[in-house]
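Category: protein sequence paired with discrete backbone structure
Discipline: computational structural biology
Format: plain text, a pair of labelled lines
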Amino acid sequence: MSEKKKHKVFVNGAVNPQFIADSIAKHSSKLNIGAHNIFLGQVRADEINGKTVQSIDYSAYDEMAEEKFHEIRETAFEKFNLTCLHIYHSKGIVRAGEISLFVFVSSKHRDIVFDACHWIVEEIKANVPIFGKEIFEDQNYVWKQNL
């Protein structure tokens, strides 16, 4: 892995829709980009044992998680011909319907961004130590299964 600057990934609470829009808008001046792909992970109001999930409280082993995100980022740049790559993940409470993961990739060509975005999201789910408590209306919770 290179010693490139490590980007901060975690945001407090939900990823704000305006932040997502602003991120997209900033890329219109980058004239070497021909394609973008975005993955937005949204908290679902799943029903578990007759109770509805109201929110997820995300936590992580910060240092280890940030290192894993950095490794995924660097490997993605090595595997795919990307122009830009941004990853943001929530920590703390995120309510059902809100965004908890924002992955934004850019390249000259569309096939690359589709493949890269899919690979990145799968790597995050499989390898980054992020934990979620699914919290119900009665404030009881279960630990989220990463599916």
